[in-house]
């Protein structure tokens, strides 16, 4: 008894093109397109900013993220609390490094 196939036959040219793209993606990573420097990325940093401005903004952002993680740590219990406290302490350490770089820059 011959059964009808529930799936239509695949277009092999589209399948082969997809397979070649996937293989090339993993076998030739150097052929990846470079990220564009013309501002089409998700985030960009404006050109011409001095190091002090960048470090000051980084420090303020780290302080905000640390406050969020610290607040979250006191809203949850158990393992999630430990994770939030760990993140908070890591951010605090990074913030100290940025602030130290700021003081060295100003000296």
Pick out the low-confidence regions. none
Q: Supply Rg.
A: 25 Å
**Biggest beta sheet attributes:** none
**Residues in helices, as a percent range:** 55-70%
The geometry reads as: elongated
State the helix count: 3
* Sequence of secondary-structure elements: HHH
Q: Roughly how many Å apart are the termini? A: 88 Å
Query: What do the pLDDT scores average to?
Result: 81
Secondary structural class: mainly alpha
Strand content: under 5%
Q: What's the count of strands?
A: 0
Q: Can you describe what's shown?
A:
This protein is an all-alpha fold and 107 residues long. It has a domain of 56 residues. 63% of the residues lie in helices and 0% in strands. The chain has 3 helices and no strands. Helix 2 runs antiparallel to helix 3. The longest helix is centred in the C-terminal third of the chain and has 28 residues. It is elongated, with a radius of gyration of 25 Å.
How would you concisely characterize the structure shown here?
The chain has 107 residues and is mainly α. Helices cover 63% and strands 0% of the residues.
What's the arrangement of secondary structure elements?
Elements: H1 12-27, H2 51-73, H3 79-106
Observed structural traits:
107 residues; 3 helices
């Amino acid at each position: 008894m011959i059964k009808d196939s529930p799936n239509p036959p695949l277009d092999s040219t589209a399948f082969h093109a997809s397979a070649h793209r996937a293989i090339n993606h993993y076998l030739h990573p150097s052929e990846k397109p470079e990220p564009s420097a013309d501002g089409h990325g998700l985030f960009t940093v404006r050109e011409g900013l001095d190091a002090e401005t960048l470090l000051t903004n980084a420090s303020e952002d780290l302080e905000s993220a640390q406050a969020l993680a610290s607040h979250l740590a006191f809203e949850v219990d158990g393992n999630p609390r430990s994770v939030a406290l760990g993140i908070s302490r890591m951010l605090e350490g990074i913030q100290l490094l940025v602030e130290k770089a700021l003081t060295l820059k100003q000296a």
